[in-house]
Amino acid sequence: MNTVEIPGLGLFAEGKYGAYISPPLNIAMLGEKKCRFILEDYHPADPRRDDFRQAISNLLSLSPKALETVNSYVFQYYKDCVKEDQTLGLKNPVIDGPDEIWASVDFGTELLVMRRSLTDPSIYIYVECECSWETEHGLGVVFKEGLQVSKIGPCDGLLSHADVWDDMSHKDTIYVRH
Fold this sequence. Notes:
Low-confidence stretches: none
Shape: globular
Helix content: 10-25%
Mean pLDDT: 94
């Protein structure tokens, strides 16, 4: 099994499909939850490999307040899901406001770290979450460069709403209903 040492983060082991996987690390922003970072398309010989380390270090330095900045977007996603479910006669838990939204979210323990595309070499960190109001599609949270949340929505594996809609006018959109 191949490994690669990433300064300040530890030894990453190559996984089954070629991605490098970190040891469990405490994520302060998630209440010290232990998570693994999975580096997609990471190549030790890549001249920009330090971008991965920097994005992870940025995310590790975030406090829970980083999530509070997007409370209103996550709450809007909740309201949109509730509205859609009501048309189907489904019931959802009641969440009274944006400040209560994260209590209904369970963050996953694997954070995918990858570049979005050749035209956008930025590093994005994607985490899939379970949430009480959308049990089928969950909640996907994306951090650009590990600095701030850049996309909220269902778990779709995409790193921006520009990718979802195939429309560059949504490249900086944090949330828009699919």
